[in-house]
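Q: Here's a chain of 413 amino acids. Please give me its 3D structure as tokens.
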Amino acid sequence: MDDFCRGIVHNIIESVLESHDHTLEWGVLPPKLRRQLHQVDPSLVLHSVVLHDENGGQSAMIQFKALKQAKNDSCGYYAMYNALSCVQALRAYSDADASHHISQLYSRARFWRLFTHLTNHLKENVKTLQYDTYPWTNTHVEKGVLERPYIEHLMEDPSTLANIWRRAGCGHTQDGMDTVSHMISAMPDFSMHSLRYNRLPLNDIAALDKVFSLFSASDDYTHAFLLGQTIHWVCIVCSKLSGRVEVALIDSRNHKLLGATEEEIKSIMDEDADDPDLTTRYKGPGYQSLKDPVQTTTLFHDCITGRQDITTYLLEYNMDGFFESFEEHVGLPSKEDEILMLLIGWLEGYWPPPVIRHNIVQIVEQKRRYLSNNTRDKFHAWGTYLSERIDFQGCGFPVVTGLEPVIQWAIKL
């Protein structure tokens, strides 16, 4: 247990080190994977989906039970605890040790020990910084929200989290911890809604691409992700053992999400929320935080098994969000004056030309080779449609005039 724990902790830290750009070192794989979560204790699987490929290979997506969070805004700390405990179990030297690590996953006392040591360390940094501004105040740390600067601070020094883990009684650091690396990555902004309508986080995508490449290069590998999704943190543990892929979702709310129907998701919202406006609720961040984990689990599974390429998928997903927004707010009205007024409203309220250049044009230019012919055709049709109906120079609206270079770019794309 102790030998193993120290390597796991080191690996958490290195995954988000090196300028926090998720740069990964090549050629260094962690110790051999010995089992997958469904093998440790099948009774803890909330739901599973087994898939077969055309070559007879088998893979699975599962949702694993977790310690249910007792403090609603501390989900980030629960996700970190879940990732550590699960990766320990996957690489434990014996089945007995693996079962012990998983049983400790449900120890509320152990979680709160780690939580206390983490927050105490953060409060020590408050004293050092002497900022007295958000989020570096004792008051903000004690709220129990795992803020982005806290994650960066905990992971910027390879010894920090390892020592906290040891002091909390979760394990010991020993010689050789540098032999295990890059097993946990933290991505605070991996909401599917954000990935669809905002600028794509290219550093995160590049990091994911490298991680998925490591899965392709090895028959035995594991990697855990701490993902900030809308208003919630979840943990996804990916493993490959003798070529068999398992992607496990672990959510401290313990709602059964994987395999849930739309009505079941809405029923969870009805139980957890007091807002009587169901229409607003089902479109809000709480609802999105229940949808995101399943979509992300499926995406990671498909990327690891070769069904999808992460860059291609997210680029197309993001561009579709752009066109979806245009169709919803502008569409294809028959009268030119209607088009102009709707276009102005869309540009001023949703997609100003500078934002389009930054979020769409720049991203496409950097990842042009991943763009499908179908999406290129969409850009051409969109640009042609507007160029034939809008007098950009003579309309008298600067926000519309500023769109003209983008339109010319889209037509030539």
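Q: Can you summarize the key feature?
A: The first strand starts at residue 45 and ends at 52.
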